[in-house]
């Protein structure tokens, strides 16, 4: 913003109050004392300007002092030192502003009055102070209310972030046992039939759990890490399903470092196998891809299984709900998921996750 062509908003707000106050004061003085309106307009302008300048300078100065002494004071960060400091400063500014404005007005008009004579006109002094007090209180109350609202909004946003983080931790704590119990059940069956394959499955499980533990210590990890964890999980499933499971993972190198919430795609991959490929005698293929489209990151999980018509009413919705709630908590309306039937001859289902592009 160019300050030479566009006045700052605080100046416009001050002028909206100062100009009517100055004009009203001049009219009031000229009516009561039967003096020249233009002359009283000049005096009123000087008194109000001095008063406002002192109040604004005091507000910024006191706020600066508070920020230095109490860095965590939210009101001071927004240039509001509080009524305890501002109230006496406003009163002092009104008195000093009145005498300074009158003195400068006398200097400009060539009027000579002794300071005691100025102070002796009690009615003029009180009238000037009252007239200047109204806009001073109005402006400062507006600043006070704005500071309080901003502080309340900050606390509200912090509470919402904390609630969202706690909710995500709860969702992940539900998701981890869900996947782990399924894997352990499969491992138990495999031990009795094929010990070498069970050993390989256990190795992949250990690698997966180690990666999961590392990811639990951070809110985001690279997209490449998400694909590595999916690869570990699919390796576990491939040991159990054998040739019935084909895998295709496609991650462009330029997207590998993009941040992503851990385990975001895991429930979609699990659903693709459990409810798409396992019920199909011949099995099928799971495809996980990533691409940029406009300003969004598009992640897809596609299976060539039995399709959405065979999807049970309960159980399969668990993973979808986890992803939907995490997207809403993290990205709001900017992140969403869509599950539709695959449109080619291979059939199956296609889950698409859309996220805002982040570097």
From TrEMBL:
SMART domains for the chain: HATPase_c
Transcription among keywords: no
Example GO molecular function: phosphorelay sensor kinase activity
Keyword Transmembrane set for record: yes
Domain Histidine kinase/HSP90-like ATPase span(s) in chain numbering: 260-359
Cross-referenced InterPro entries: Bact_2-comp_sensor_kinase, HATPase_C_sf, HATPase_dom, Sig_transdc_His_kin_internal
Classification via SUPFAM superfamilies: ATPase domain of HSP90 chaperone/DNA topoisomerase II/histidine kinase
Pfam families attached to this UniProt entry: HATPase_c, His_kinase
Transmembrane domains' residue ranges: 41-62, 83-104, 124-145
GO CC term (a single one): membrane
Keywords: Kinase, Membrane, Transferase, Transmembrane, Transmembrane helix
Name listed for the protein in its UniProt record: Signal transduction histidine kinase
Species, as recorded: Paraburkholderia bryophila
């Amino acid at each position: 913003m160019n300050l030479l062509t566009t006045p700052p908003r605080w100046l416009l707000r001050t002028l909206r109050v100062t100009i009517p106050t100055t004009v009203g004061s001049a009219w009031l003085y000229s009516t009561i004392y039967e003096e020249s309106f233009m002359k009283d307009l000049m005096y009123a302008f000087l008194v109000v300007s001095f008063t406002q300048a002192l109040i604004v300078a005091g507000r910024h100065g006191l706020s600066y002092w508070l920020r230095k002494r109490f860095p965590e004071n939210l009101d001071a960060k927004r240039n509001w030192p509080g009524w305890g400091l501002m109230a006496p400063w406003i009163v002092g500014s009104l008195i000093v502003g009145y005498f300074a404005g009158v003195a400068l007005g006398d200097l400009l008009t060539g009027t000579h009055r002794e300071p005691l004579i100025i102070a002796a006109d009690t009615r003029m002094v009180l009238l000037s102070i009252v007239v200047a007090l109204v806009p001073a209180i109005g402006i400062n109350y507006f600043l006070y209310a704005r500071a309080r609202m901003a502080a309340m909004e900050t606390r509200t946003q912090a509470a919402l972030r904390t609630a969202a983080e706690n909710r995500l931790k709860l969702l992940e704590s539900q998701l981890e046992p869900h996947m782990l119990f399924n894997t352990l059940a499969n491992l138990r069956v495999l031990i009795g039939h094929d010990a070498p394959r069970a050993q390989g499955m256990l190795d992949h499980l250990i690698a997966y759990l180690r990666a999961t533990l590392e990811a639990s210590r951070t809110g985001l990890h690279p997209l490449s890490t998400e694909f590595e964890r999916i690869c570990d999980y699919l390796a576990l499933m491939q040991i159990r399903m054998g040739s019935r499971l084909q895998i295709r993972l496609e991650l462009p190198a330029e997207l590998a470092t993009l941040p992503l919430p851990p385990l975001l795609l895991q429930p979609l991959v699990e659903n693709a196998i459990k409810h798409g490929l396992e019920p199909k005698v011949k099995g099928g293929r799971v495809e996980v891809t990533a691409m940029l489209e406009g300003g969004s990151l598009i992640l897809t999980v596609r299976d060539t299984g039995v399709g959405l018509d065979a999807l049970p009413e309960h159980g399969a919705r668990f993973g979808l709900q986890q992803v939907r709630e995490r997207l809403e908590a993290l990205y709001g309306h900017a992140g969403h998921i869509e599950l539709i039937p695959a449109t080619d001859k291979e059939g199956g289902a296609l889950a698409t996750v859309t996220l805002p592009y982040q570097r």
